[in-house]
From TrEMBL:
It holds the Pfam family Iso_dh. This is Isocitrate dehydrogenase [NADP]. It comes from Sulfurifustis variabilis. Its cofactor is Mn(2+); Mg(2+). Homodimer.
Amino acid sequence: MVYDKIQIPAKGERITVNPDFSVNVPDHPLVPFVEGDGIGIDVTPVMRRVTDAAVRKAYGDKRSIAWMEVYAGEKALKLYGSNTWLPDETLDALRRYVVSIKGPLTTPVGGGIRSLNVTMRQVLDLYACVRPIRFFPGTPTPLKESESELTDMVVFRENTEDIYAGIEWPADSAEVKKVINFLQREMGVTQIRFPASSAIGIKPVSREGSERLIRKALKYAVENDRRSVSLVHKGNIMKYTEGAFRNWGYDVARHEFGAQPIGDGPWCRFRNPRTGQEIVVKDVIADNFLQQILLRPEDYDVIATLNLNGDYISDALAAQVGGIGIAPGGNIGDGVAVFEATHGTAPKYAGKNQVNPGSMILSAEMMLRYMGWTEAADLIIRGVAGAIAARTVTYDLARARTAITAPHKPGEHPKATEEVARLMPGATLVSCSGFGEAVVKHMQ
Ligand SMILES: NC(=O)C1=CN([C@@H]2O[C@H](COP(=O)(O)OP(=O)(O)OC[C@H]3O[C@@H](n4cnc5c(N)ncnc54)[C@H](OP(=O)(O)O)[C@@H]3O)[C@@H](O)[C@H]2O)C=CC1
Ligand SMILES: O=C(O)CCC(=O)C(=O)O
Ligand SMILES: [Mg+2]
């Protein structure tokens, strides 16, 4: 295979996919990476250094990663020109080399190019966005430490459907007029409140797309000894999309995992064939879920949800365990996987060597585990946990917010008048690269 701008390292072999979608990983795999826009230039090199250190410590010379840079976003535009934000050869390399990792990419609001991140997921059919949320002791959070410790969830967000399909027409366009006309004349729709000035977006949700995502979440629960899978939806309002997602989820649990109803249902349960432990399959409406995760995080474990809900839920849950500075993820299809942090390009910090590289480092940890390199993955977890426990942290974790309350009379509700940023007690504030060094130091 010859690419135009992508240089294939001389040493290194291709990861391949088996018919059962497991992966064959050689000792020196070629792994594509996208540096990313904004803080991509800060976090991606640190992620590579930490990953290389973990692999070296775990396997010596026996194993190593042959990193292969592929281009997307602003770097691609500079290199390829002609409005090329996501070159075909990048998509080809991500598919052909099977396992890769990317930094964040910018998406303009209200116009301009569609999301490159979403496009990659759709084109490569990476249908599950898997985002684990775990607490590292010592991390400052908005909850009490004892409550944060109870937050241990893995979100499976559907990654190819829902309003992210990008089927929408702007207000006042000829297209939107045609669609509204069709809805009113042929479908008998009367509920569009302001038809003359409405934009329209379409939300496709299929049985096939929902089932494969929920099946992956249920399998994950079985393979990782989890206790429950919660289907999070807004099916009371969007009955045939989000409501159907819930119903299809229960169908998969019953028909493919042998789940039996609890009482009159629809909640159900089945025995994990590996351990004999019970796994409960339940559902919850999304707004209720968002308050319950703060009040009773221990009730939730594996989460399966639609694309937009999953986007909101992943940032909200990340905040509960310290923020999107330590929130990893992976976009996983049948074999092919692209790992990436939950956060975006945070442009105001770009190039300042200031942000937390933890999300990218932990995304690499997920990648190593996916490759079966568990010893190296474990070293990364120990390194991150050790650096945080030693309070060697970047600005986002070092700043603890303290509300100053105005004097108030008994019986009156106190008002927060000011919030000041203070250092987490005893913290050593380090740079982005400094945190990477601390992670390596604590790998043992
Ligand atoms: N998968 C992807 O590539 C994603 C891309 N995006 C894109 O990124 C751009 C910016 O999006 P925006 O909504 O501002 O969200 P971002 O996630 O980029 O940033 C929001 C805030 O989160 C905090 N933050 C983000 N990353 C880190 C980090 N590594 N360490 C510490 N703190 C961090 C910062 O908070 P504070 O200011 O409090 O320090 C930052 O201002 C948009 O174009 C968006 O479309 C967004 C999400 C995902
Ligand atoms: O594509 C984008 O710009 C945003 C993506 C996003 O927010 C996410 O993946 O969580
Ligand atoms: Mg998001």
